[in-house]
Amino acid sequence: MISVAVSSPDLIVRAGLESILRSHPDIAVITSQGEDYAPDVLLLQHSAQDYENLSDLLYSALAPPPAIVILTDNLHNDLAESALRSGVRAVLPRSATPDEILATVEAAAAGLIVLHPDVIDVLLPPITSRTLPSSPTQALTAREIEVLGMLAEGLGNKTIARRLSISEHTVKFHVSSIFQKLNASSRTEAALLGARLGLILL
Fold it and tell me: Based on the structure, what is the number of domains in the chain?
């Protein structure tokens, strides 16, 4: 059973979100903040300004901190990027469907990071404006796709090398090749492009 707490200044919105969550047989909604208040997931719906101190919320309010999922009607690059850097598991637009919200809560509780298509669009320029291979699944080798998936997990070169039983130098070669083929300038950008192209799941 996944325990979820909902935070929103709008009582109607909060009630609506709680109703969506209660429709799932494996989700329990926590409505009080007693001594045992320790939700697995915290679903937040606030204004963009309220998210400015996300790191404080993550690391001071609850220990261990819950998986944070935020809903916002003011989705922009700075908010999405700072939220993900602060440890937020998912950023969803207010237009997210009930099924998307439920699936995201389940994934966040399992330790996964969820990127809604609208969030990827905010973080990356339109893919049509980029120089990408016409068939990325053919351009990237099976090993490069494997390395790309590990980059998306946030793993460093040493860890990737250990997992794949290859040298760190070989990992660096694969990463450089991935960057070149996807026209990416960072690991995060490569992972986002890989997800948008359907090469990996985030």
Answer: 2
Pairing of strands 27-30, 114-115: unpaired
Q: Is the dihedral of CA 77, 83, 84, 88 positive or negative?
A: negative
Q: Please state, in angstroms and as integers, the Cα–Cα distance from residue 136 to each residue in 5, 33, 201, following that order.
A: 40, 49, 15
87 plus 29 within the same structural domain: yes
pLDDT digit string (tens) for 156-169?
A: 899 999 999 999 99
Distance (Å) of CA 181 to CA 25, 136, 192: 44, 8, 14
- What does the pLDDT average to over 145-157? 89
pLDDT tens per residue, range 15-60: 999 999 999 999 999 886 655 668 899 898 876 555 555 555 554 4
Residues 67, 44, single domain; the answer is yes
Same domain, 56 and 110: yes
**Centroid of chain to Cα 146:** 19
**Residues 6 or more apart from 74 whose CB is under 8 A from it?**
47, 48
- The HSE-up count of residue 113 (CA atoms within 13 Å, CB side) is 21
4-19: pLDDT as tens digits: 999 888 899 999 999 9
Q: d(Cα 142, Cα 182) in Å, to the nearest integer?
A: 15
